[in-house]
Design goal:
The protein is α+β, with helices and mostly antiparallel strands. Helices cover 39% and strands 14% of the residues. The protein has 3 helices and 4 strands; from the N terminus they run H-E-E-H-E-E-H. A hairpin with a 2-residue loop joins strand 1 (53-57) and strand 2.
């Protein structure tokens, strides 16, 4: 039998080693792709859990409110920087100015339109 035949031991060992190397390369590439974050369709969809807040207004605990509802309360001046707010995960109530996400809402909330 010819040594260059497909069924020779040397060819089978070469084939087995090539297959093992290819499998290792695939595993490495898959691992790299899973750990890579590129905005777009290749990333798994992360579900965004809506955040809700409770607010002390006129000495009463009210809520829960979404960020959109908080924006409305901010524009109506019912929430100011000294207003106490709580959200799940906090050990105690905090004033509004201690919440970066509330400060963002203050900056993005347009004032109530008054043409005078």
């Amino acid at each position: 039998m010819n040594d260059d035949s497909f069924f020779s031991i040397n060819r089978l060992v070469e084939f087995g080693m090539s297959l093992a190397l290819a499998q290792q390369m695939v595993k490495t590439m898959n691992s790299a792709m899973v750990n890579m974050h590129i905005p777009g369709s290749m990333n798994p969809m992360h579900t965004i859990v809506p955040q809700f807040y409770y607010v002390m207004i006129e000495d009463k605990q009210v809520g829960p409110f979404s960020e959109q509802e908080l924006s409305r309360l901010i524009s109506e001046k019912k929430i100011v920087k000294e207003t106490y707010i709580w959200k799940p995960g906090l050990p105690k109530w905090e004033i509004a100015e201690n919440f970066p996400e509330i400060l963002k809402l203050v900056a993005l909330t347009p004032p109530i339109f008054n043409p005078k």
